[in-house]
Amino acid sequence: MTTEKKSTVTRNRILATGRELVLARGFGGVGLKELLERSGVPKGSFYHYFASKEAFGCVLLGDYVDEYLQRFDALVDGPASGNEKLMRYFSAWLAQDGADSIADRCLVVKLAAEISDMSEDMRHVLDDGVKQLVARLAQLLREGAADGSVRPQSDPDAIAATLYGQWLGAAIMSKLSRSPAPLQTALADTQQRLAP
After folding, report:
1. How far is it, in rounded angstroms, from Cα 104 to Cα 190?
2. Average model confidence (pLDDT) for the chain?
3. Helix axes 156-177, 120-147, angle to 10 degrees
4. Do 78 and 36 belong to one domain?
5. Is the separation of the CB atoms in 26 and 20 below 8 Å?
6. What are the φ/ψ torsions at residue 102 (nearest 5 degrees)?
């Protein structure tokens, strides 16, 4: 293995381990010592890959946003009505067949309040990712209105942002109650709201 590949593998291992720890404890709850021990990287090597813990957080969130948007694009790819594509995405917020749901692994749900007070750079990474997602949802609302599968909306961008906010709230409520009921309610409400 070349030094460059080994370096990339090590960096990616730090990021993957970091994501799991952050999902479990939040960003502030993850210490560099534990992160490096869990990822099997010698102490002091962290700064070879990242200038600071905040820089690590920005890369971690940037990778998460990229993966999330790729997952979204894969979920809505292919021939289907705008409504079917939207329901594929929103249904993925609920765990199915033992798989993790979007809500279970969502770093926006986990970190939005924490990092908005902690790091402007990290906040910006997540905010930009949310804006990209909301734009995709708005486009599907427009597609659905055009193909007759979604009730036309006067302002698809505002409705997309509202829907995403509703789902974030439902995900938080599901975590608090340890129940999928808030997400199931959000799905039923979304279906009713968008029905032509």
Report:
1. 20
2. 91
3. 120
4. no
5. no
6. -60, -40
